[in-house]
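Prompt: I keep going back and forth on a fold encoding question. Comparing notes only helps if you start from a blank page. Show me how you would write down a chain together with its backbone fold. Please set it down just below, with no commentary around it:
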Amino acid sequence: MTCASCAARVEKKLNKLAGVTATVNYATEKAQVAFPDKVTVDELVDTVEATGYSATEVSSGEGEAGGLDPAAEHA
């Protein structure tokens, strides 16, 4: 991500999914995502990729929320 509006764009797209609550941190290029069982990590990654970025799942520690790592823009 190259700017705060990039982070906002990814966050907005993730939050449009039913039951998903996402917060994207531009500085760390990470997203904290809470989502229901009916939404898969693959769907979340696909949503980020459809926005023009790549993403990988970040393992969560015990008692922590999982997240995504939306990476650099692709051309």
About this structure: The longest strand covers residues 67-73. The two ends are 12 Å apart (CA to CA). The beta strands are 21-25, 30-34, 53-58, 67-73. The chain is about 30% helix and 30% strand.
